[in-house]
């Protein structure tokens, strides 16, 4: 069964510190992996996308990595800010002839809280 | 562009009542979806559409209906609300299928008592 597991479930860090969020997946055949940021009371917004051949992608202070062999991804946040407090969701897309609706597998998310 | 809009933002229903959650997008996207988000779980797909006049069921379709008469609009109907449908509902649209970025609306928080 296609699954996406994220860890930790929640995390509290001090402003200015770095942190790393993990995503393990069993989706096959793999097409791409996207990280979304979801602020409280809002819809998710895409941060990065990586395909099979990419192993690092940055978006400002956010850096995502992908190891397609071990089926793991991480999202590293550098010099955290209060505005980074949000839920971070890993979404893996399957490749193939499946209908659109069944291509995406969502993780449950990691809730990050940045304290001053 | 307004992107994806949803109304209402909040709704309280009594068990057995029906209602329609509205979703509209102005990006001319062919693909639209409805998800529900419950605590501790990933977003789960309710229904989706790959174009006007075409809809299909997702992972959790029971108790919900959809229609897609135009490219812009994709309403979700709750036929007879149940407490198990208490959730936050998100509508999303995408330019293409698979890994194309999904643009999400702000969500509708529904409580069924």
Describe the structure.
- The complex is a heterodimer of chains A (116) and B (113).
- With 116 residues, chain A is an all-beta fold.
- Helix content of chain A is 0%, strand content 57%.
- Chain A has no helices and eleven strands.
- In chain A, the strands form two sheets. In chain A, strands 2, 4, 5, 9, 10 and 11 form a six-stranded mixed beta sheet that branches. A five-stranded antiparallel beta sheet of chain A has the order 1-3-8-7-6, with no helix packed on it.
- In chain A, strand 4 and strand 5 form a beta hairpin.
- With 113 residues, chain B is an all-beta fold.
- In chain B, the strands form two sheets. In chain B, strands 2, 4, 5, 6, 9, 10 and 11 form a seven-stranded mixed beta sheet that branches. A four-stranded antiparallel beta sheet of chain B has the order 1-3-8-7, with no helix packed on it.
- In chain B, strand 9 and strand 10 form a beta hairpin.
- Chain B starts with a strand and ends with a strand.
- The relative contact order of chain B is 0.33.
- The mean pLDDT of chain B is 94.
- Chains A and B meet through strand 4, strand 5, strand 9 and strand 10 of A and strand 5 of B.
């Amino acid at each position: 069964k296609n699954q996406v597991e994220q860890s930790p479930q929640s995390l509290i860090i001090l402003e200015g510190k770095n942190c790393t969020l993990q995503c393990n997946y069993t989706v096959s055949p793999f097409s791409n992996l996207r990280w979304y940021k979801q602020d409280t009371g809002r819809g998710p917004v895409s941060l990065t996308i990586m395909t099979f051949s990419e192993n690092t992608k940055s978006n400002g202070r956010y850096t995502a990595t992908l190891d397609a062999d071990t089926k793991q991804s991480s999202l590293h946040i550098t010099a955290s800010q209060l505005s980074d407090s949000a839920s971070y969701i890993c979404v893996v897309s399957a490749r193939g002839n499946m209908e659109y609706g069944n291509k995406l597998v969502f993780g449950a998310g990691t809730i990050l809280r940045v304290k001053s | 562009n307004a992107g994806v809009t949803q109304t209402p933002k909040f709704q309280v229903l009594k068990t057995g009542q029906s209602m329609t959650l509205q979703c509209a997008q102005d990006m001319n996207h062919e693909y639209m979806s409805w998800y529900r988000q419950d605590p501790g779980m990933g977003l789960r797909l309710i229904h989706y559409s790959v174009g006007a006049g075409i809809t299909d069921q997702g992972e959790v379709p029971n108790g919900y209906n959809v229609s897609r008469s135009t490219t812009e609009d994709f309403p979700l109907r709750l036929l007879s609300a149940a407490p198990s449908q208490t959730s936050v509902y998100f509508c999303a649209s995408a330019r293409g299928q698979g890994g194309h970025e999904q643009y999400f609306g702000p969500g509708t928080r529904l409580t069924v008592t």
